[in-house]
Inverse folding.
């Protein structure tokens, strides 16, 4: 089920600033006066809501970017599958004696797509890298393909990020996933600037490439990509 203003945020790897970019994008869309719903249906490394550390979790960060409270209803509406261990979701679920099926994950996202007004933006953040396992049988790529949504690919600027970003972009291309844009998020202590990394990536991909600095805002034209159907 397609949605004219929906995008799936996927990473070229893990711990590269994907949630930072998603939150910055959400804040920018809101500042522009656009309706936006941002969800991270599947999240690992999330403490219980009554744990003070929950405030630093990806779920809490995305709720705050939307101006929403981290109450029980809000947390459930953003991240219905939450696991405490900072592991791949299939491993984190197994550690808690829980199961996770791709069909259930896809069905939840399709319901969110159906409920979202056509004029609003819907941002779905994936987990880990594009090929990270999300269930014992499926990867993030399987999840993305099942939803038939365009991808916004996030990379870091660390040594090796160029190769990782281009590999992820090529994987998406070979699987017929439209690449709406690519974001280089500044990595701490990287040997080169994110702008240098973005320039190198830009020479090899046909999609717009943007930079988001740590502590910086989302570029306005990146927000425009999400607001532009197709």
């Amino acid at each position: 089920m397609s949605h004219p203003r929906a995008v799936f945020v996927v990473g070229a790897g893990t711990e590269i600033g994907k949630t930072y970019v998603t939150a910055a994008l959400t804040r920018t869309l809101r500042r522009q006066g656009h309706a936006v719903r941002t969800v991270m249906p599947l999240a690992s490394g999330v403490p219980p809501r009554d744990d003070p550390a929950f405030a630093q979790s990806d779920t809490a960060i995305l709720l705050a970017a939307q101006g929403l409270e981290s109450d029980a209803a809000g947390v459930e509406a953003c991240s219905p599958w939450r696991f405490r261990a900072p592991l791949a979701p299939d491993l984190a679920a197994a550690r808690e004696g829980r199961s996770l099926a791709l069909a259930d994950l896809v069905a939840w996202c399709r319901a969110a797509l159906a409920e979202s007004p056509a004029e609003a933006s819907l941002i779905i953040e994936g987990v880990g890298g594009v090929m990270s396992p999300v269930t014992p049988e499926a990867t993030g790529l399987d999840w993305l393909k099942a939803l038939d949504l365009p991808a916004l690919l996030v990379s870091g600027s660390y040594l090796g990020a160029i190769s990782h970003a281009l590999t992820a972009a090529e994987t998406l291309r070979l699987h017929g996933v439209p690449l709406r844009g690519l974001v280089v998020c500044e990595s701490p202590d990287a040997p080169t600037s994110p702008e240098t990394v973005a320039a190198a990536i830009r020479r090899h991909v046909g999609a717009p490439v943007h930079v988001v600095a740590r502590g910086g805002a989302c570029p306005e034209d990146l927000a425009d990509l999400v607001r532009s159907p197709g």
User: Anything to note?
Assistant: The chain has a mean pLDDT of 93. The first strand starts at residue 6 and ends at 11. Residues 130 and 140 are 5 Å apart (CA to CA). The beta strands are 6-11, 36-39, 42-44, 81-83, 121-129, 151-155, 179-185, 209-212.
